[in-house]
Amino acid sequence: MRRLVASLPLALLLAACSPSPAPPQSGASRSAPANAALGSPEWYAWVDRSLSISDDGHGPDHGSDEWNRAVQNKLGQEAPQSKPGSPEWQQSVDALLRTRLPPST
């Protein structure tokens, strides 16, 4: 019993020093859509939000050459080497972002 009482302040101190969870992000969720088909409007919107391609909805059209280049630039050295916009490219972008972002809940 004494050990339990003696260890209580230490447990409380450790709990107080633990990092708190990150605050929720304002706006749309950055988590990956569970079943969005590659190339679907939902998938494009998720990639756009995840990489901050558009500025409050103002930016290149999803899937356009300009949008694909913006995605490539945001991904930098990790960007897929396949032709931007191709199904292989979309699959690579999807896989890369899903490993970077938390899963949807």
Describe the structure.
With 105 residues, the protein is mainly alpha-helical. The chain has a domain at 38-53 and 80-105. Helices cover 50% and strands 0% of the residues. The protein is elongated and about 70 Å long. The two termini are 41 Å apart.
Features:
105 residues; 4 helices; 0% strand; mainly alpha
* Structural category: mainly alpha
The largest sheet, given as strand count, sense and whether it forms a barrel, is: none
The total count of helices amounts to 4
Query: Over all CA atoms, what is the radius of gyration?
Result: 20 Å
The residue ranges in which pLDDT falls below 50 over 5 or more consecutive positions are 20-28
Mean pLDDT rating: 79
Strand segment count: 0
Terminal-residue CA separation: 41 Å
Task: Write down the overall geometry.
Answer: elongated
What's the SSE blueprint?
Elements: H1 2-17, H2 41-51, H3 65-75, H4 87-100
Brief sketch in words of this structure:
This protein is mainly alpha-helical. Helices cover 50% and strands 0% of the residues. It has a domain of 42 residues.
